[in-house]
Design brief:
Layout lengths: L10 H13 L3 H15 L10 H9 L15 E4 L9 H18 L9 E6 L3 E2 L4 E2 H14 L3 E4 L8 H9 L3 E5 L8 E8 L9 H10 L8 H11 L11 H20 L17 E2 L7 H10 L6 E2 L23
Parallel strand pairs: 2-5, 2-6, 8-9
Antiparallel strand pairs: 1-7, 3-4, 6-7
């Protein structure tokens, strides 16, 4: 016989968790939530300390009025975890639906204009829960397409500035960069750019937040859509949604524009007593920056830097970092 939940956990938290697990397109986090519910429901009230499952349910689905992750001028930013306060597939689906709906409404007076959006992503991930920047980017591309918006999903890891550059280059109505920048390794983020290639600001953030709340129910069975694409694109991490050619062209255009911007002068060697260009050491801090930093140096005709080998390649576990936030080590 299943025992009644202890008074340690609010019934509203249990109900919220149950609904979340039903809507969650990620089978791993949905099962994780259901297991927590089962553990709580089978815990008897014996006067002992709250079980870890009870504490987790209250933390992930709080009953104190804090209902969901906030959306503002930085988009979304939080720990990768299930529930409305975390960065996870359902939170991103809800956000992408609200963002898409806002964009369609905003441009409804221009029916002849084909709407376009740009999405990029980095290497952040939570392997145990199958949460990643890539999964967020894929879901966003699927949802934009569902809303009638062409989506340029940039192929592979890209640096954040490429998204606003692509917005300007392509005349896109918005862009998303899935990254947590310098936040702790357990976090992820969802940076939203407006059609002017700047991160959203007031009152746009409030208008998008309102649309998100009006689109919390998934429009489609995204789990089935992703699984179907995965069976058809077994060797493509982006499941056939990205555009490798367009990505390489945009990167080439970006670095060409950088060189032609007036920043390149060729004066560095003549400014030093030795007559030689300065030498640099560089660490990507386990991020995705190394190939792009290398290309910047090549673009400006500078000698190659010395990369820290232990921190050169992308690694979402940030294994050599001893600080809470990776950027503190720069």
């Amino acid at each position: 016989m299943i025992a009644t939940p202890t008074t340690t956990v609010s019934s509203s938290s249990i109900e919220a968790a149950q609904k979340w697990a039903t809507l969650d397109p990620n089978p791993i986090t949905a099962e994780y939530t259901r297991n927590l519910i089962d553990d709580v429901m089978t815990t008897t009230s014996d006067g002992s300390s709250p079980s870890p499952a009870m504490e987790s349910i209250e933390s992930l689905f709080p009953s104190d009025g804090q209902q969901r992750i906030g959306f503002g001028t930085a988009g979304l930013r939080s720990e990768m975890k299930p529930g409305p306060l975390g960065m996870n597939d359902l939170t991103v689906c809800q956000t992408a639906q609200g963002l898409a709906k806002y964009c369609v409404k905003k441009h409804s007076q221009q029916p002849s204009k084909k709407l376009c959006a740009v999405v990029g992503y980095d290497h952040r991930s939570h392997p145990t829960l199958n949460i990643s920047s890539l999964s967020f980017a894929i879901l966003t591309a699927i949802i934009f397409a569902e809303a009638g918006i062409d989506c340029i999903l940039l192929d592979g890891f890209v640096m954040t500035p490429l998204v606003p550059f692509a917005i300007q280059k392509l005349g896109a109505i918005c862009g998303v960069m899935v990254t947590a920048s310098h936040n702790p390794k357990s976090d992820n983020g969802y940076k939203v750019y407006d059609g002017d290639a700047c991160q959203i600001r007031s009152p746009t953030d409030k208008a998008i937040a309102s649309e998100i709340l009006n689109n919390l129910e998934p429009w489609k069975d995204y789990r089935s859509i992703v699984e179907d694409r995965r069976t058809k694109h077994t060797n493509d991490p982006c499941l056939g949604l990205s555009d490798p050619k367009a990505t390489q062209e945009l990167l080439a255009d970006y670095f060409s524009a950088l060189r032609d911007s007036g920043l390149y002068t060729g004066q560095a060697p003549r400014l030093l007593p030795s007559g030689k260009a300065p030498s640099f050491a560089y660490t990507a801090m386990h991020g995705i920056g190394h190939p792009f930093a290398k290309r910047v140096f090549e673009t400006f005709g500078m000698e190659a830097f010395r990369a820290v080998p232990e921190q050169r390649d992308p690694d979402p576990s940030f294994p050599t970092g001893t600080y809470k936030s990776p950027a503190f080590l720069l």
